[in-house]
């Protein structure tokens, strides 16, 4: 089962709201990722977790706050977002961060609209 | 110069055609190569993953890597309308988890 699930599928929020995106995988993968994708562009890496520890933060604004409560779950907490943050937010996982087991499997994404 | 160059297309072919999608890369330190298919408003789906030069086949799909030319290709045989999607090539680091994506090629297979 190569499935990564994400909730919600769609989210509309105002600039003063606080919301969270959730990602789950049950493949026993130890690396998990958050990406942001704008229309007609490739995904852009935001955060990387390896063994539940933050490994990479690609200079993402602090209004995005990741959390990895356990090896199967990854959250992205959102606060005081801007309209330009509207995008498809993708979660991915891989068996390991390094070596030959690092192919990444993506979830279906959460389509976020910030009003 | 982008690190992974990919022609965005669009590429339009008749059903049953052989499709060739190509990328070039500049950073030889990233040794892993992936092809993803992405339907409109969906997440990318991993099609092929390879880390060595040569060909790798999976059903109608063949991934080809030429490290001497820094060139990667995806061939789709007997293309179907359901293959209409955006195809993303990606180059992966061996130790950080970073992927460098091409811009994606939009493919349309006409019945």
How is this structure best described in words?
The complex is a heterodimer of chains A (115) and B (111). Chain A is built from no helices and 11 strands. Chain A has 115 residues and is an all-beta fold. The radius of gyration of chain A is 13 Å and the shape is globular. Chain A starts with a strand and ends with a strand. Helices cover 0% and strands 55% of the residues of chain B. Chain B is built from no helices and 11 strands. In chain B, the strands form 2 sheets. In chain B, strands 2, 4, 5, 9, 10 and 11 form a 6-stranded mixed sheet that branches. A 5-stranded antiparallel sheet of chain B has the order 1-3-8-7-6, with no helix packed on it. The radius of gyration of chain B is 13 Å and the shape is globular. Chains A and B meet through β5, β9 and β10 of A and β4 and β5 of B.
Q: In sequence order, what are the helices and strands of chain B, one letter per element?
A: EEEEEEEEEEE
Describe the largest sheet of chain A.
Answer: 7 strands, mixed
Number of strands of chain A: 11
* Molecular shape of chain A: globular
User: Low-confidence runs of chain A (pLDDT<50, min 5 residues)?
Assistant: none
State the assembly state of the protein chains. heterodimer
Helical run tally of chain A: 0
Determine the most extensive contact between two protein chains. Answer: A-B, 30 and 24 residues
| Poorly predicted residue ranges of chain B | none
What portion of residues of chain A is helical?
under 10%
Determine the N-to-C terminus distance of chain B: 37 Å
Rg of chain B is 13 Å
Q: What's the layout of helices and strands?
A:
The complex is a heterodimer of chains A (115) and B (111).
Chain A: E1 4-7, E2 10-13, E3 18-25, E4 31-37, E5 44-50, E6 53-57, E7 64-70, E8 73-79, E9 87-94, E10 105-106, E11 110-114
Parallel strand pairs in A: 2-11
Antiparallel strand pairs in A: 1-3, 3-8, 4-5, 4-9, 5-6, 7-8, 9-10, 9-11
Chain B: E1 4-6, E2 11-14, E3 19-25, E4 32-38, E5 45-50, E6 54-58, E7 61-66, E8 71-76, E9 85-92, E10 99-101, E11 105-110
Parallel strand pairs in B: 2-11
Antiparallel strand pairs in B: 1-3, 3-8, 4-5, 4-9, 6-7, 7-8, 9-10, 9-11
